[in-house]
Amino acid sequence: MSASNTSVPSEGSSSSSSSSSSFNPNPNPNPNPNPNPNPKPSRLRIGRRYRAGRLAGPYDAIVIGSGIGGLTTAALLSAAGKKVLVLEQHYTAGGFTHAYDRNGYEWDVGVHYIGDVGGHPTMTRKLFDFISGGHLQWAPMDSTYDRICLGDEQYDLVAGREAFVDELSRRFPGQRPVIEAYLERVMAVASAMPLITLEKLCPRWCAPLFGLYKKLRWPDYLHKTTYEVLRELTDNETLIAVLTGQWGDNGMTPKTGSFIIHALIAKHYLYGGYYPVGGASKMAETIIPQIQKTGGEVFTYARVETLLLDGARVTGVRMEDGTEIFAPAVISNAGVFNTFEKLLPESAASAAGYPRQLQTVQPSMSHLCLYIGLRKTAAELGLPKTNYWLYPSPDYQADTEAFLQDPGAEIPLVYISFPSAKDPEFENRYPGRATIEVVAPAQYAWFERWQEKTWGKRGADYEALKQQFSERLLAHLYRHFSQLRGQIDYCELSTPLSTRHFCAYTQGEIYGLNHDPARFAQTWLRPKTRVPGLYLTGQDIMSCGVAGAMFAGLVTAQSLLGWRRGGALMRRIFSGSTAENNGAQSTSPLSKLGADRLRAP
Ligand SMILES: Cc1cc2nc3c(=O)[nH]c(=O)nc-3n(C[C@H](O)[C@H](O)[C@H](O)COP(=O)(O)OP(=O)(O)OC[C@H]3O[C@@H](n4cnc5c(N)ncnc54)[C@H](O)[C@@H]3O)c2cc1C
């Protein structure tokens, strides 16, 4: 769609709307009673501001980007005695795990819930404990972690395998065998993760062997879309919609997304959702000291302009201010498009064949997020510790296509999260206040014409478009939480331009690369690139999600350290010790990678 034609009529004005009659076109004529024409940057800053004079090299490795993948690689290399420099272009560290504050409120950006971190010592929990020195704490959500709302019907995803099956069997009488069979397939994906991980670490010449093994031994549903797999089990479209109602967690509708990513996410949350105590910024805050222990540092306001080459080898980075920093290894956490299209000089990228490889993958969808502040506590407002997924109908594909072609069509997915209800420490930091986040898909093209304008000064037409989307999202919120009418003190909408500006994803993409079946067949999405000295980490080489990107960080560290030193480090991590209390013995951690997804808490 042409960006210059973008105009967004009120919700459901398009003919494709299925339930537009229930929509109140003017639910709240002034949704933002405290409009903020000149928003001030957040004061919540994690990391140290970059100055060339603060560099204290030589460094053993440089990490570009402080997302959870980059921080994990840095923390693990530090635990192996390396001195690591992390360079982050944003004013705060953490990538999508950063949080920000404004007007007396604080919101997370890309951390609404994390799975596999409950009481049981899962691998996810052990890795979080190790890289945070045991300082990252987790608060459980409600046992109903996700509520899928199809029109006026609500279906609960309840923590624990048995409870999950019992609840859905109650709602779908006679479907218990289908639900059990579905979970078997979900578990089979978890069982495949060690092999997927191992392939990323083995030399490239092993790829045909892995390919043959996968072809002969893997169930064919590992190569299919989520919908294809579910449709083999049942023709009950409502049940399929409920089982795939978390599709926003990977940004691909069930008919387009790989069953692998669906299953990883479904399994990740099967034993419940958790929230970092103190908010999402606690992740970077607790990991950075581990990096500093060996003389490393995490600098913010530190945009890397280009990778430096000596012949075919990457030897360092040039910063935006012209400073050149050298290290034997450079690890990019900036995503594969940024790495091979912007950071690596074109000649080197072409020589290594990356322009052709990039044609096999697509950027993921982009999104809107309405950040809301209220002058009462979550308890006073009755806010739940459950995420709400609102859909106009079970036909996710048709609804999403209609909206992405015509933003006036009904919003196909509205996701609501209540961070202040989930964080037991929120009230200590912000007494008498609460926050809500409302997320929806979006097209970058709708906002493209303002991409060259400065943040906070994009003009009245941009603000008007944001206002229209804000009102529509608020209408969805009020439909399910009518007690919130008149309670909102402040709200602001982020667009794909915000994601581009703060997290440096060119198309404002929410999850890096698309997670379609073709992506999972790409053997070049691995830590070690074809360019000597250059490594990748983060969501693009494993999967989206904080845990997916964090395990990518682990795989990259392993790749850099090699089997012997990397294996020793992994034994320390998965023996249960923290970075402050490094243990010594454990069993085959690599072979168990991803296997925590199989275990009950
Ligand atoms: C709205 C939203 C909600 C989400 N909700 C959840 C959730 O509830 N649970 C969950 O598990 N996951 C969630 N995710 C996904 C999760 O946050 C991400 O998959 C994960 O954090 C990505 O981590 P990463 O390591 O790949 O790096 P990123 O977080 O993508 O960070 C990359 C970093 O690189 C930096 N960078 C880029 N270029 C340069 C440069 N040239 N110089 C210096 N720095 C540079 C960027 O500024 C950025 O900080 C959500 C994501 C979004 C957007």
Textual characterization of the structure:
The protein is an alpha/beta fold and 601 residues long. Helices cover 35% and strands 16% of the residues. The protein contains 20 helices and 20 strands. The strands form five sheets. A seven-stranded mixed sheet has the order 8-7-16-17-18-15-19, sandwiched between helices. Strands 1-10-3-2-14-20 form a six-stranded parallel sheet, with helices on one face. Strands 11-12-13 form a three-stranded antiparallel sheet, with no helix packed on it. α1 packs parallel to α19, α2 packs across α19 (546-574) and α4 (176-201) crosses α8. The N and C termini lie far apart (47 Å). Bound molecules: flavin-adenine dinucleotide (FAD). The site of flavin-adenine dinucleotide has 40 residues, from α1, β15 and α19. The site of flavin-adenine dinucleotide (FAD) has 40 residues, from α1, β15 and α19. Residues 1-25 have a biased composition (Low complexity). Keywords: FAD, Flavoprotein, NAD, NADP, Signal. It comes from Microbulbifer salipaludis.
What are the SSEs and their pairings?
Elements: E1 48-49, E2 61-64, H1 68-79, E3 84-87, E4 99-102, E5 105-108, H2 123-131, E6 138-140, E7 144-150, E8 153-158, H3 161-171, H4 176-201, H5 207-217, H6 226-233, H7 237-243, H8 259-270, E9 274-276, H9 282-292, E10 297-300, E11 304-310, E12 313-319, E13 324-326, E14 329-332, H10 336-343, H11 346-351, H12 354-358, E15 366-374, H13 378-381, E16 387-391, H14 396-405, E17 414-417, H15 419-422, H16 426-429, E18 434-442, H17 460-480, E19 488-494, H18 496-503, E20 534-536, H19 546-574, H20 589-592
Parallel strand pairs: 1-10, 2-3, 2-14, 3-10, 7-16, 14-20
Antiparallel strand pairs: 4-5, 6-9, 7-8, 11-12, 12-13, 15-18, 15-19, 16-17, 17-18
Helix pairs in contact: 1-9, 1-19, 2-19, 4-8, 6-8
Flavin-adenine dinucleotide (FAD) binds next to α1, β15 and α19.
